[in-house]
Amino acid sequence: MTDPRIPVTEDELHAYIDNELPAERRGDVEAWLSTHPDDAERVRSWREMAEALHARYDSVADEPVPPRLSIDRLAQQPRKWMYGAIAATLAAFIAGGGTGWLARGAAASPSMFQNFTVDALDAHKLYVVEVRHPVEVPGSERAHLQQWLTKRCGWDVRAPELGATGLKLVGGRLLPGPTGPASFLMYESASGERFTVYTARAKTETTQMRYVKQDNDGALFWADNGVGYVVSGGSDRDRLTQVARLVYDQTEKTGG
Amino acid sequence: MIPALRRYARALTRDADTADDLVQDTLVRALRSERLFLGGDVRSWLYTILTNLNKNRRRSLARRPQFMPLLDNNPDASGTEAEGRDIARALATLVEEQRSVLLLVMLEGLSYREVADIQGVPIGTIMSRLARARAHVKAAIEGERPALRRVK
Prior knowledge:
Order of helices and strands of chain B: HHHHHHH
Radius of gyration of chain A: 26 Å
Low-confidence stretches of chain A: 77-112
Number of helices of chain B: 7
Distance between the termini of chain A: 61 Å
Helix content of chain B: over 70%
Largest sheet of chain B: none
Oligomer: heterodimer
Low-confidence stretches of chain B: 65-80, 147-152
Number of strands of chain A: 7
Radius of gyration of chain B: 16 Å
Mean pLDDT of chain A: 78
Largest sheet of chain A: 7 strands, antiparallel
Number of helices of chain A: 9
């Protein structure tokens, strides 16, 4: 039993029409509405809004599903257009990102470390939105990817296993970093959430983990044995920390 | 499930082609990562993928010049035409997270808990987004109606 004299809150009004209110409180809200015409008017307007939404959009659900959305068809040939031509990726990279990297090199920066964190976040933003060509080498070729990036970068590049946080390696690419090549690895969860791990040569030997946020993206960065790491993701800092911890633990074990 | 995803995508993007592109990408991604699906509700999972993909799409659009549709290009509105346009236009004025919450709760009938999981935020955040979205849409619709009458 609840006390009908307890005033009904705004949240309760919403919960009432969304059927989220505990059953024992419904009667109280109905009694409240009968004596509070302003609130009753609002609740009525929300109902009308729901009706208008259904009137406008239910017809979409009644349409026949277009052939291109047929599951059978999509299941048959997903690979063909998922990892398209490397050439197209390169072209997109040169057209979209190449000039940006050069332009930023000319501008003086306060600190190398900050600078490459910005590079890493920019790369993160640039590539996480890619549906078809997010990486140069797919995660299915993990051994080749690690070997190639290690050779080009000059330090041991290992793609950490992030399965414990629900993330799978999408793949990686080589990027121009502030003092030479940088490696860039992308991970993805089953729901499409993406994280990237960027490494570049750092002047600082070893630092603590630090956090930086830009718009809707966040990054945790640190240096270890002369290699800087930047783990970038969304704005959820706890989730980012969880992922970065896992990266950190594995790089530490392999000796950076 | 596909009809409901298409309805949500259409209301979210207000463009038929963009909406079906989103649904297609969502399905491809779901098929590709079915091994990553750890159980739970498939429906919520698909809504989550679609919501994330749309967020990514909008972020990539944000870096380019904006081309806004001059008109709602979906003349297939049932109900009265004016009513359909009102609600579509009011939706267009919402910020992304609020539009998504409003549609998932009011159009797709998901629970607060499910929407909180989809957006990856606490239930309290969902409730405040929903309250703000409803207030905003109400104001947008009421602000628009008198103007329409005057034109007639």
